[in-house]
Sequence to fold (87 residues):
Amino acid sequence: MVIKKMHDLGIRSEHAYIAGLASVGLSFVSWFASLQAEKAGVERADRWGIFVGEWAPTFIGLGLALSHYEQQEGTLNGSLHSVKETG
Fold:
């Protein structure tokens, strides 16, 4: 499972949320840089901005999946701990 592997590598939901927010900012920067550097016009700059902007939902989705995994892992550990105390 990809989410478990990411979690095992130390990637947490907060990291994915930060990446999503950063990609929104990077989308604007890439749009503006393309507009200034290339003579292809606004259409080309829009394509760059949209391309980078499409990363945000992916990162947010990964953040949600990691958050769900982290909550399940915490609940499972807490449940086992309380069973040991009462048993």
The first helix runs from residue 2 to 8.
